[in-house]
Amino acid sequence: MSGGAGDADTSGLLEQFDRLRGTYPPQMSASLVLPLLQIVQQHKGHVTAADARVVADYAGVPPMQVTEALSWYTMLHRQPVPPHVVKVCRNIACALRGSDRLLAHVESKLGVTPGGTTANGRFTFLAVECLASCGTAPVMQVDDTYHEQLDEAKVDRVLEALR
User: Fold this and answer.
1) Structural domains of the chain, count
2) Which end of the chain has fewer CB atoms within 10 angstroms, the N or the C?
3) 107 is a domain residue
4) Contact assessment for residue 41 and residue 33, using Cβ atoms and an 8 Å cutoff
5) DSSP 24
6) CA-CA distance, 55 to 90, in Å (whole number)?
7) CATH code for the domain of 68
8) CB 70 within 8 A of CB 47
9) What is the CATH number of the domain that holds 90?
10) Quick one: which of 4, 68, 80 has its CA closest to 44?
11) Distance of alpha carbon 46 from alpha carbon 44, whole angstroms
């Protein structure tokens, strides 16, 4: 982000940071971390360690705070991802409602195990700890869209629409 070798074009990124900062009280700068990381990801598609340092410096927080946020939230990617990221929740509410069966089904449909990317490079498949939609379990997130109260037929329709 600093404009060094290998960095993506950052024109407008700091302007977006400044606009966001203007919506927060000055004493709440630590609360900027997650939305700043989201801005970086929207701009680049993922967030590097160098980007995390820039966010920490900009927000005035310890770098570890940004690293923790980056490692905790499953919507943030530390490396480039394909056009589609498929996340299936495996937490207790989803597990009780059949997420293990859905994980196996998605694995079979995509031909890749959780954590992998399909051979054609179009999908990354992740088993995630929680998508925070327990009341509508089992849940799958594809890109930024939640698909809830799933069964195999619903999963098939979602995946087919992306091919």
Assistant:
1) 2
2) C
3) yes
4) no
5) S
6) 30
7) 1.10.10
8) yes
9) 3.40.30.10
10) 80
11) 5
Q: In the structure encoding, which two tokens stand for residue 123, read together?
A: 């999908």
89 and 61 within one domain: no
d(CA 58, CA 28): 13
Find residue 85's DSSP bridge partners: 124
User: Is the per-residue pLDDT at 10 higher than 60?
Assistant: no
Indicate the pTM of the whole model: 0.73
The residue type found at 113 is T
Tell me the pLDDT band of 81, cut-offs 50, 70 and 90: confident
Q: Domain range for residue 128?
A: 84-162
Domain co-membership, 158 together with 135: yes
Per-residue pLDDT band at 2 (split at 50, 70, 90)? very low
- Kindly report the number of other CB atoms within 10 A of residue 2's CB atom: 10
Q: Are 32 and 88 within one domain?
A: no
Kindly state the tokens that stand for 35.
Answer: 């939305």
Q: Quick one: which H or E segment has residue 68?
A: helix 63-72
Residue type, 74: T
Domain assignment present for 7: no
